[in-house]
Amino acid sequence: PQPAYYNFFRETFKQVTQELRYASPTGGAIEYIAGLFFLDQRDRFNFDSLYRNFMFPHFTGYEEQLTRQHERDVALFGQVNWAISDQWKVAAGARLSNTRKTGTYIKTIPSTLGDPASILPFIIQTGKVSGKINRTNVDATATLSYAPDPRSTLYVSVGRGTKASSFNNTSPLLGVVPAPLIVPDEIATTYEFGAKSRFWGGRALLSLAAYHLDIKGYQDSYFDGNLVGFLVRSLPAKSSGLELEGQVQANGWLNIYGNIGWNPTAKLRLPNGVEERLQRAARFTGVLGARVSTDITEALSLSGTVQYQHSSGFYHQPPGSGGDIFSGA
Question: In angstroms, rounded to a whole number, what is the distance separating the alpha carbons of residues 94 and 139?
Fold first, then answer.
């Protein structure tokens, strides 16, 4: 038979969430909301590989990588909106969260697929490793907006958000256990300035925003064809760009919309100081579409959407990872 290599991914999880909120009456100059959030989740992730005479004769067998994880999250959150005047408004919010996770990774070779001369057990080493994560983070955001007239708004915002640490659930072909096992927190700080305006009697909306994003510990993963396996990196990253968006209610049944994005600086910074373009981060993106919604009779309605999307070329794998790594034009 011809050499073959297949990957199979299976994931199951059980999740319980609870949230308690307390909100102020609406319509006042100051409105607020506060709450408590709880999550309990158990995950089981299988990454299985089937080899049949892969690279060498009798490199045949079935490899299983199993990761089990138990996560518990508790968070306190709140937000305040203050209408200083008809023109000036402030919104600020914060979230205090604690994440606790326990995880176990196991690599085994359940089968050599009936090949008594299989060399797979002599090349792929099996192993097991466990770990614990206990992280407390404070995230916050604030927005200041100004309305020069009832139809337009200018705003500036700054925020900090955290993607909690997680367990790496794969190792390369010759790896025994994932390295690293624990992927650090991903912390993003965002800055945005924008303007929004309605015209044509409120039937049209146009918005323009400029943004900058700094990320500490960007959680990046990719398949390395040279090492035959998925690798995980935690690196500094940044992204800056412009977004233009608009929509027009042409009549009672037709809405036309579109947006354009320009993202020239989406890059990772490698340990040697070299910058590398982020995966799946095109420099230019665009969407143009239309929505139709109308009543034909009292009991029958017609609705639909047509949309055109465009993207410039982008990397779907980091340079040097092997194989076809670039998409688009």
Answer: 6
Tokens of 189: 């700080």
Q: Is 325 left (phi over 0), alpha (psi -120 to 50) or beta?
A: alpha
Enter the tokens of residue 18.
Answer: 């609870």
Q: Supply 208's token pair.
A: 């323009």
Arithmetic mean of pLDDT, 190-211: 95
pLDDT (tens digit per residue) in 120-167: 999 998 999 999 999 999 999 999 999 999 999 999 999 999 999 999
Calpha distance 295→303 (Å, rounded): 9
DSSP state of 322: -
CA distance 58 to 112: 9
pLDDT higher at 307 or 313: 307
Contact criterion met (CB below 8 Å) for 97 and 137: yes
Cβ-based neighbour number of residue 234 at 10 Å: 18
Total Cβ atoms within 10 A of residue 115? 17
What CA–CA distance (Å, rounded) separates 216 from 146?
31
Q: Where are the beta strands (DSSP E) in the chain?
A: 4-23, 30-52, 61-83, 88-111, 127-149, 152-163, 166-167, 182-183, 186-199, 204-224, 229-249, 254-262, 267-269, 275-277, 284-295, 301-311, 314-315, 326-327
d(CA 78, CA 138): 12
* Residue-wise burial string across 57-90, b where 16 or more C-beta atoms lie within 10 A, e elsewhere: ebbbbbbbbbbbbebebebebebbbebeeeeebe
- Going by C-alpha positions, the residue among 144, 142, 137 that lies closest to residue 158 is 142
